[in-house]
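Tokens for chain A. Residues wanted.
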């Protein structure tokens, strides 16, 4: 059953992603508010990785906000979207492959989660995606597409139907974000 907390988190999260796509720094305080609300939604659903992730997201949102505002204070730095190097792709894959089992094993041994590996996967890749978004790497949107697709199944399993809808919207918005940032970079698709 949908709660008022879930509904408010849903609304803030949608606006937050729209702001991220448009490269508006206001996405970050919206991320903080949405994350705090979703902490309670996920905690109540025994999705402890997701709940803990929301606290990390709130902290990372402060960092992301600073990252996005910093270039405007220092005109010598690039304010644009970046594309990862091949080395960056390998580092991202290694970080994901390391974080997933570590997170899943923690959830399996220290919580009563009934989906530690799926929750761990979404949690680990969300951390990677959040870092890439904070640094304005184009590839963050590809990570979010994967995270959102897996999350849809995870949240359906937990009967969080409004959150399933949110992640369906996120999946589409991630694709739109990727296309929009490609266009801004003038990269052929």
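Reply:
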């Amino acid at each position: 059953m949908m709660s008022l907390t879930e509904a408010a988190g849903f609304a803030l999260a949608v606006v937050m992603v729209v702001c991220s796509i448009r490269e508006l720094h206001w996405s970050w305080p919206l991320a903080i508010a949405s994350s705090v609300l979703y902490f309670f939604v996920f905690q109540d659903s025994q999705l402890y990785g997701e709940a803990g992730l929301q606290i990390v997201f709130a902290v990372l949102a402060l960092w992301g906000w600073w990252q996005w505002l910093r270039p405007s204070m220092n005109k010598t730095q690039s304010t644009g979207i970046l594309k990862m190097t091949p080395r960056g792709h390998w580092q991202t894959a290694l970080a994901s492959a390391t974080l997933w089992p570590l997170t899943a094993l923690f959830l399996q041994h220290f919580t009563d989660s009934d989906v530690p590996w799926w929750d761990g996967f979404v949690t680990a890749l969300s951390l990677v995606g959040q870092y890439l978004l904070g640094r304005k790497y184009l590839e963050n949107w590809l990570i979010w597409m994967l995270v959102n697709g897996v999350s849809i199944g995870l949240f359906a399993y937990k009967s969080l139907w409004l959150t399933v809808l949110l992640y369906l919207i996120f999946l589409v918005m991630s694709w739109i974000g990727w296309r929009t940032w490609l266009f801004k970079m003038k990269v052929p698709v």
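Residues 4-75+87-185 form one domain. The radius of gyration is 16 Å.
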